Amino acid sequence: MVEVGLDEHRSMRGLKGKVAVITGAGSGLGAATLHRLSEEGSITVGLDLVPAPDETRAASWHQVDVSNEDSVAAAMKAVIAEHNRIDVLATFAGVAGGGPVHSLASQEWNRVLAVNLTGTFLCCKHALVPMVEQESGAIITVASVEGIEGTEGGSVYNAAKGGVVLLTKNMAIDYARRNIRVNAVCPGFVETPMFDAVMGSSGMADYRDEYRNQHQIGRFGHPSEVAAATAFLASEDASFITGHALVVDGGYTAGMRTGLSDLLGLS
Ligand SMILES: NC(=O)c1ccc[n+]([C@@H]2O[C@H](COP(=O)([O-])OP(=O)(O)OC[C@H]3O[C@@H](n4cnc5c(N)ncnc54)[C@H](O)[C@@H]3O)[C@@H](O)[C@H]2O)c1
């Protein structure tokens, strides 16, 4: 595994002092993003089903179910009461799930859509209210390479993430003239507790190498790499970028690899 750490000299423009709300901040990619934005000097607020982890750098924390509108609305109101504004929203709260459509229980369809798509909508909705008022903001939604192309058995997960990509583009259009940028990050497979749970489920271990090989770089991602892309999209360095779905995927979606590159002397 390549170590991708934070370089203390690196910083992105316009993140210092910004109030950044990160959902799913209790684990994996959301936790790494909260850490990165804190390093950049942002005032970070964690939202998650779970309580704040001991080591979090969040300025404040709210236990929230993103699929429940009352819960989300109350949390966003509390953030405004505490910090007066919301400058950045990054929506990492999400669940894995899916299965072939002919045998997919409707409850499973509803569960995954409720968190991954409706949860994204609800968090954006209630963060956009203060952003529209203050006429500024940056939203980074979290889709996936599985929101751009299909995967075996993906079904509802891919449908939800594909929905996130188009919701993102629509919000980019609707709010651009209010000085609010909206972009998505689309990670490849990144080693987090969710990844471990999926790869650890029955039979999946046999396919782990195949999944790794789909990433042209030849390895899975590190949470800090998704955090860096998210911080970039939140920052003034991305001031002319809106409506974009940024793959952070080590070449997963670049195209097919057959091994011909060995013949070309590129192995
Ligand atoms: N890890 C990957 O390979 C990968 C790849 C592409 C996209 N993603 C997406 O990135 C996001 C983060 O994934 P991760 O790998 O860090 O997962 P994770 O399971 O490590 O973290 C997800 C967090 O979301 C929280 N959460 C779940 N349901 C919630 C709810 N209803 N309300 C509030 N919080 C809730 C969990 O408590 C957890 O802290 C997800 O949206 C996931 O779909 C992950």
Features:
267 residues; alpha/beta; Rossmann fold; 7-stranded parallel sheet; 8 helices; binds nicotinamide-adenine-dinucleotide
Q: Can you describe what's shown?
A:
This protein is α/β, with parallel strands linked by helices. It has one domain: Rossmann fold (3-Layer(aba) Sandwich). Helices cover 40% and strands 14% of the residues. It is built from eight helices and seven strands; from the N terminus they run βαββαβαβαβαααβα. Strands 3-2-1-4-5-6-7 form a seven-stranded parallel sheet, sandwiched between helices. The longest helix has 29 residues. The protein is globular. The two termini are 19 Å apart. The model has no long low-confidence stretch (mean pLDDT 95).
CATH topology term:
Rossmann fold
How would you characterize the largest beta sheet? 7 strands, parallel
CATH uppermost class: Alpha Beta
Bound molecules: nicotinamide-adenine-dinucleotide
Helical stretch count? Answer: 8
Number of domains: 1
Shape: globular
Going by helix content, strand content and strand pairing, the class is alpha/beta
